[in-house]
Amino acid sequence: MSGTSCEQRGDDEATALPAALGLGLLAVGGWLLTTARPWHKPGSPLTLGLGWTVSGALLVAGLSLLTHCVRTVHRAPEAAREPAED
Questions:
Q1: What tens digit of pLDDT does each residue of 9-29 get?
Q2: In whole angstroms, what separates CA 73 from the centre of its chain?
Q3: Which residues contact 12 (CB under 8 A, 6 or more apart)?
């Protein structure tokens, strides 16, 4: 583990809004996925395909935002990344 925390680096302020947006996208995508189930109500294939595509896109976008935020907060400090000079 690194010696500096994310509070000292200031990364928590930079990732709070994208993380909240990612969680919101995951929630909306999951809700849409549960409402677009073809076995509960018959619908046209176009409507069902569009619903599943949009929900999948929302889920992937939310997951990628959360992944980016986790990597930002847990990355190594800048000084540790640079190779040591001889």
A1: 555 567 788 888 999 999 999
A2: 13
A3: 6, 73
